[in-house]
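Incident review: delayed structure delivery

Summary: a single-chain prediction request sat in the queue longer than the usual turnaround. Root cause was a stuck worker, restarted by the on-call engineer. No data loss occurred. The affected request and its eventual output are reproduced below so the record is complete for anyone auditing the incident later.

Affected input:
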Amino acid sequence: MTRPDPSGACPPLPGRALGRSDVRVTALGFGGAAVAGLYEDVGEEEATAAVDAAWAAGVRYFDTAPHYGLGLSERRLGEALRGRPRDDFTLSTKVGRVLVPHDGGGDDLAHGFAVPATHRRRWDFSADGVRRSLEDSLTRLGLARVDLVLLHDPDDHEEQVFREAYPALEDLRSQGVVRAIGAGMNQTRMLTRFLNDTDVDAVLCAGRYTLLEQGALDALLPAAEAAGKSVVVGGVFNSGLLADPSPGVTYDYAAAPAGLLRRAVRMREVTEAWGVPLRAAALRFPFGHPAVASVLVGARSAAQVRDATGQFHRPLPDAVWEGLRTRGLLPGEVPVPSGSES
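Output delivered after worker restart:
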């Protein structure tokens, strides 16, 4: 692991290709939900400062979706990135939810975003819906192209997705409209099907490969490795529990169960005994598996970005993993990064 430069300059972030595509992502990616008012309002200047801080730290992979803040994430990321050389960064967005104008007022907090309810989401995994969603995203982004398009949360639309939406993405890739395709979900079963039964380049797996749970290790990660495809990991903090295990913290967007909170506290005791914050270990953990290409971190401010990149570059002794295993907090068969890996 590269040590931070004492001058304050950020060391470079390693990069990898997504599967067999020519799309490259940095090991740390910027998750765009938080700057779209996830749970609480985020101002325009604060959001822009977060993207600027990510760029200054060497992050060159940015992920967004129409779902995030009813298009606000796409608009803000597009504006913040528009002055950057387009070939210098990788951008992913998602399809499956089409935004329909709504003039009934109110807010979007029922969906987790502190933004005015200017639109409603409509599920659409038809071929035409995929194309329309991507066209709308490009308009909001103000950019000519995105690099990676992911089918977003198709849990309840499985057969239509494989029959209509996925072939539409294949067509877009073959036409050169996008360079890589995949799916993003909070479960592993359907993502494994994508890896085994389609020609996706990558999948985004949120919350299922963390220090607290490793369900993706059963089938998804082996399938990706066998097929030469990539996994982007999201939700490495399980929506907050592994960042700061304290009373009232959330796990998978709900109050953390007492048993999981106690386990996370015990994990923190182990990591801090070696001078390592729990969030640093949680951030680095997924890179123990060779199929993992990038970890997405959501940040709503420049300070949160700098903290995440600082934790990524923090030296992490192998003894941390050994301590977690010795105390029964991490199964012995789960791969972990060595002290020199990222």
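Verification: The longest helix spans residues 158-174.
Action items: add queue-age alerting; document worker restart procedure.
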